[in-house]
Amino acid sequence: MTSVSGGAVELRKPPAAVPPGERGATRIADRVVVKIASQAAGEAVGRPVRDAARPYANVVVAHETARVRVHVELEYPTDIGARCAAVRRHVAERVGALVGMEVPEVVVHVERLHPAPVQGTAQGRTR
Q1: What gap in Å lies between CA 36 and CA 57, rounded to an integer?
Q2: 22, 66, 72, 87: which could form a disulfide with 44 (CB 3.0–4.6 Å)?
Q3: CB 44 within 8 A of CB 91
Q4: Residue 8: predicted pLDDT
């Protein structure tokens, strides 16, 4: 870089590069991890069941590790074990990819089961 002061040209060196370990750190708030986990659980559950609450999550973050607990509502009949495994896998992948944390544990709580609509039956009021 050059600088002109009073007609004289002065050469200045660029600032010294700071080593990566001394630059600081990025901290991701726990509530961000909660939102990502909740969204991922909703993606894994798929199309929401009528009158079902949106999935929500609780997260404990410690030392680049996130332990996640998600609460979902599923339609019934379904393979509950397989659906919970899919939610567990998807939440761990998405949180790990988006936040860069290790997710050793995802607990899935099924809050409620909703009966699936039966095809061919009348919906609503019948006269």
Answers
A1: 9
A2: 87
A3: yes
A4: 63
Q: Which residues contact 125 (CB under 8 A, 6 or more apart)?
A: none
pTM above 0.85, yes or no: no
The pLDDT value given to residue 65? 94
Nearest residue to 87 (alpha-carbon basis) of 44, 36, 38? 44
CA distance 100 to 9: 48
Q: What are phi and psi of 45, to 5 degrees?
A: -70, -35
Tokens of 111: 């809050």
Answer yes or no: are the C-beta atoms of 121 and 83 closer than 8 Å.
Answer: no
Instruction: List the one residue out of 57, 72, 73 whose CA is nearest residue 105.
Output: 57
What local confidence, expressed as pLDDT, does residue 48 receive? 80
Secondary structure (DSSP) of the chain: -EEEETTEEEE-PPPPPPPGGGS------HHHHHHHHHHHHHHHH-SPPTTPPPPEEEEEEETTEEEEEEEEEEEESS-HHHHHHHHHHHHHHHHHHHH--EEEEEEEEEEEEEEPPPTTSPPS---
